[in-house]
């Protein structure tokens, strides 16, 4: 089982749609969780950290379920500029960040 | 404020040559991380360094790859005798203290290595 697994992409959605990405992780000792965004041929950029109680940042909502070792990202009212690859990232304790392969999102006009 | 800087942005090498990738972290950051991203793959951790020390090199191939972060100057990722399979994007990231929890890693723009 891979350390961090994400939905296979790509997701093609119309502008204004709501889209959800899922991610599971295998290391139950993981302590920190993040969603990064990576545009084509660019570096990853932190979108948001994920907290146990769930957190929201504008149109983006992240949820964590430690019991199921599951993380989600919800994007509401999708914009063309949301088109990118979304990376689920986990930090198992005092170890390096572990990245998922990413899920590609294309928002279509 | 300058972010993480990497150079060169693109590097072409022939098989058997050496590749040197440089990374200047955000000013004041003393923790540097190197990642490799193969085409259509996720980022894979290679090595974590603090000034003059390698903290974790569990992701580094055992041969041909080395990294340093000297007291003065940028961090260097060195690949000797490159092979076609080394072609990838190499990203450097830095953080002010140990990344994770409340500390974000800031990524540089990457160096795209192509081995002919």
Order of helices and strands of chain A: EEEEEEEEEEE
Low-confidence stretches of chain B: none
Run of helices and strands of chain B: EEEEEEEEEEE
Shape of chain B: globular
Radius of gyration computed on alpha carbons of chain B: 13 Å
Number of helices of chain A: 0
Please provide the count of β strands of chain B: 11
Strand content of chain A: over 45%
What can be said about the biggest beta sheet of chain B?
7 strands, mixed
Find the count of extended strands of chain A (DSSP E, 2+ residues). Answer: 11
Into which percent range does the helicity of residues of chain B fall? under 10%
Low-confidence stretches of chain A: none
Which class best fits the helix and strand makeup of chain B? mainly beta
Regarding quaternary structure, what we see is heterodimer
The averaged pLDDT of chain A comes out at: 92
What pair of chains forms the biggest interface? A-B, 21 and 25 residues
Number of contiguous helices of chain B = 0
Name the beta content range of chain B: over 45%
Describe the structure.
The complex is a heterodimer of chains A (109) and B (116). Chain A has no helices and eleven strands. Chain A has 109 residues and is mostly beta strands. In chain A, strands 2, 4, 5, 9, 10 and 11 form a six-stranded mixed beta sheet that branches. A five-stranded antiparallel beta sheet of chain A has the order 1-3-8-7-6, with no helix packed on it. Chain A is globular, with a radius of gyration of 13 Å. The model of chain A has no long low-confidence stretch (mean pLDDT 92). Chain B has 116 residues and is an all-beta fold. In chain B, the strands form two sheets. In chain B, strands 2, 4, 5, 6, 9, 10 and 11 form a seven-stranded mixed beta sheet that branches. In chain B, strands 1-3-8-7 form a four-stranded antiparallel beta sheet, with no helix packed on it. In chain B, strand 4 and strand 5 form a beta hairpin. At the A-B interface, strand 5 and strand 10 of A face strand 5 of B.
């Amino acid at each position: 089982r891979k350390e961090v697994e994400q939905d296979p992409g790509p997701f093609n959605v119309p502008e204004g749609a709501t889209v959800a990405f899922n991610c599971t992780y295998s290391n139950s000792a993981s302590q920190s969780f993040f969603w990064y965004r990576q545009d084509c041929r660019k570096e990853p950029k932190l979108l948001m950290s994920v907290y146990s109680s769930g957190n929201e940042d504008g149109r983006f909502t992240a949820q964590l379920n430690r019991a199921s070792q599951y993380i989600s990202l919800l994007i509401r009212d999708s914009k063309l500029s949301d088109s990118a690859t979304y990376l689920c990232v986990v930090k198992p304790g005092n170890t390096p960040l572990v990245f998922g392969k990413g899920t590609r999102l294309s928002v279509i006009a | 404020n300058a972010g993480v800087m990497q150079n060169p942005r693109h590097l072409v090498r022939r098989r058997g040559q050496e590749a040197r990738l440089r990374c200047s972290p955000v000013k004041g950051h003393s923790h540097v991380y190197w990642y490799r991203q193969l085409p259509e793959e996720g980022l894979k951790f290679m090595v974590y360094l603090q000034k003059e020390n390698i903290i974790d090199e569990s992701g580094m191939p055992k041969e041909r790859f080395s990294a340093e972060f000297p007291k003065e100057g940028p961090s260097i990722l060195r690949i000797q005798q490159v092979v076609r399979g080394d072609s990838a994007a190499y990203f450097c990231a830095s953080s002010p203290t140990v990344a994770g929890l409340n500390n974000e890693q800031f990524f540089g723009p990457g160096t795209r290595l192509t081995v002919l």
